[in-house]
Amino acid sequence: MHKIKDREHAAKEMLANVIQKISPITASNLKKIIDKFEFITFDKDAVILKENEIPTYCYFVAKGIVRVYYKTDGRQIIDWFAEEGTFIGNLYGYITKSGFDIYESIEEVELLRATYADIEHLLSHVHEIERVARKTIELYYVQYIERSHQLKGLSAEEKYRLFLRNYEKFVSRIPLKYIADYLGITSETLSRIRAKELKKKK
Amino acid sequence: MTKHSDILLEKKAKELFTERIAITTNTDAAQLKEVTDLMDLVHYKKNQIVINEGQIADYFYFIIKGLVKVYFFKNDKVVVERFEQEGGLFGGNFTHISSNMPGKYVYETLENTTMLKIKYSDLDDLCKRSHTVERAYRIMMEAFHNSYVERLYFFKSLNSEERYQAFSAQHGDILNRAPLKDIANYLGMTPETLSRIRAK
Fold first, then answer.
1. Is residue A66 pLDDT above 60, yes or no?
2. Which CATH number is A14's domain given?
3. A24 and chain B: CB distance < 8 Å anywhere?
4. Is B138 close to A124, i.e. CB distance below 8 A?
5. What is the C-alpha separation between B90 and A137, in angstroms, rounded?
6. How buried is residue A127: exposed, middle or buried, by Cβ count under 10 Å (0-12/13-18/19+)?
7. pTM, 2 dp
8. Does A46 reach chain B within 8 Å, measured CB to CB?
9. Measured between alpha carbons, how far is residue B94 from residues A77, A141, B45, B60 in Å?
10. Contacts B78 to A, Cβ<8 Å
C-alpha cells in the first residue's frame, strides 16, 4: 500500500501528462490547473454524484473505473464508462444548474477533483488554459459521438462488438450487467451473444 | 438572386449568427466580428449534398434558412441521425483529433438552404489570437456536446410513441417540412407506425 501522498503525486503527474497531450502548455499554467485539483478516493460502488445533484466538481480518474448513468422508469441506462486518464465533467450542467447523471465507482477509485468555479476562473483569465478546455471538449465531443451515437441503427451483436473495440483494455473489469445496461439490451441477450462469439473464436 | 440582395442577405445572416452566438456564449457581440469576417454566404438547392460520406468537412455551417438531413449508411441502409434547421450548426469533422472521423455522415438539404460557412482552420487560427473567440467556441462545443448527450438520453429512455411526442413538442415544424419516411427513420419506426401514431 503506497502512502496517500505518493498516490496523490502519481495522480497529479498523470493529469499533467494527459493535459500536455491534449494541448501543449507552459509549466506555470499547467501548475495553476494542477493546484486546483484535490485527491479523493472512493470505495467500490460508491455514489460520487447523486441523481439530480447539480454538478460542483470536474473529476479526473487516476485509478479505477466510474460508470456514468441515469435512471428512467426504474431502469438504469449507462451513458459511458470513465476509465483511467479520463475526465468526468458536465460544465454545461454547472452553468445551467441542471444534471441528471449519476457517477458511481465500479472499483475502488482514486480521483482528482476541482470545482467548476475554480476552473471557470482559470478559463476566463488564462487564454492558454481556455485552449486546453476547448481542445478537451472537442476531443470528448468526438469520442462521445464515436462511442455512443454510433450505437444507433446497430443490431445487439454489432453493438457488443463495437463495445469490445471501444473498451478493449477495460472490458474484463466491467460487470456484464453494466455492459448490458450500456448497450440497452437484457443480460440474457448479452449472454447469448457472448456464447456465440466464443464459439466463433474456437 | 442579384448580387446586391446577396450582400444584404449576408449582412443579415451575420447579424443572426452573431446574436445567436453572443446569447449562447455570453459574449460581447462586437468581439465576434472577427469571426463573421471569415464567413461566407452559400446557397444550396433542395436535395443537394453539402458534405458527403467519406469527405473531410473543412467547414462549419450555420443555417440561416432551410433544413438539412444528417444520415449515415448501415449495411447499405440509411439511418437518419438528426435534422438541422434554422440556427443549427454542423460540420467540422475534427480530423486532427480522430482520423476515423471523416466519412460517416452525409449532410443533405431537404429544402433550398442558405448558410454561412467558416473554414475550420481559419477559426482555429483565430482562436489562437483571440481568447474571447476561443472561449465562445469552447462554450458552443459544450452546447453541442450537451445536445448530443440529451439526444442520446431521449433515444435510450423513451419508446417510439414517446419519442414522437417529444420530437413533435420540440421540433413540431420539422414534422411538416421533412418527408414522412425520414422522420420515421429518425424516430426508429416504420412509416406505417408513424402514420398510425400521428392519426391518434
1. yes
2. 2.60.120.10
3. no
4. no
5. 16
6. middle
7. 0.87
8. no
9. 28, 10, 26, 10
10. none
Q: Residue A91 belongs to what domain range?
A: 4-116
Domain count, chain B: 1
Measured CA to CA, the distance from residue B187 to residue A149 in angstroms comes to: 14
Question: Does A97 reach chain B within 8 Å, measured CB to CB?
Answer: no
Question: First vs last Cα of chain A: how many Å apart?
Answer: 40
> Which residue in chain B has the smallest CA separation from A72?
B157
Residues on chain B touching A141 (C-beta within 8 angstroms): 94, 141, 144-145, 148
User: Between chains, do A77 and B72 touch, taking CB under 8 Å as contact?
Assistant: no
B191-199 and B160-177 helices, crossing angle to 10°: 90
CATH number at residue B33: 2.60.120.10
With pLDDT > 90 as the criterion, what percentage of chain B qualifies? Answer: 52
More confident residue, A100 or B30: B30
Touching check for B127 and chain A: CB below 8 Å? Answer: yes
How many Cβ pairs closer than 8 A exist between chain A and B?
81
The boundaries of the domain holding residue B104 are: 3-130
ipTM of predicted assembly, 2 dp: 0.85
Residue range B101-151, pLDDT digits in tens: 556 789 999 999 999 999 988 999 999 999 999 999 999 988 888 888 887
Residue B160 lies in a domain: no
Task: Tell me whether residues B77 and A138 touch, CB distance under 8 A.
Answer: no
